[in-house]
Amino acid sequence: MSVYSMAFSNIDIRGAIEFAIDYVEQLKELHIFIYQCKDLAAADVKKQRSDPYVKSYLLPEKAKMGKRKTAVKQKTLNPIYNEILRYKIPQESLRSQTLNVSVWHYDALGQNSFLGEVNLNLAMWDWKFSKRHWYPLEPRGRPIQMLQTGF
């Protein structure tokens, strides 16, 4: 589950998310380019579909920075977003942050379901590396990923 949500789910975590991050010096903004997800778990097992959306937090200062969310894509396990999530933050402040990107199934009549997450430690992030990359979705509470930029 995302670190700051009380929603629980018994959905098996699978699939991946493609995104890139970049710092735009002129705007003093962190940009998270959310491209797409693939092979997500089905929240509606009978119909084999989900209504996924992506949300992000900068941790540990969740309350200060707030969350950002994409639009909900309906009835798909392979949503395409092509959206940018933005945080106004000085670049030096990012050294103490972890980027949490999570995927959720939207349920208009009930509780949203967790579909997986990625945690990136920004302390050692190479800001010259802003290419799109596929990240496997992980269950709640997995260790922070360190992306190897050499591939």
UniProtKB/TrEMBL annotation:
Entry annotated with the keyword Membrane: yes
Cell location: Membrane
Domain C2, chain residue ranges per copy: 13-135
SMART domains assigned: C2
Major localisation: membrane
One GO CC term, this protein: exocytic vesicle
GO molecular function: neurexin family protein binding
Keyword Amino-acid biosynthesis: no
Keywords (A to Z) from UniProt: Membrane, Repeat
Pfam families named among the record's database cross-references: C2
GO BP term, pick one: exocytosis
Protein name in the entry: C2 domain-containing protein
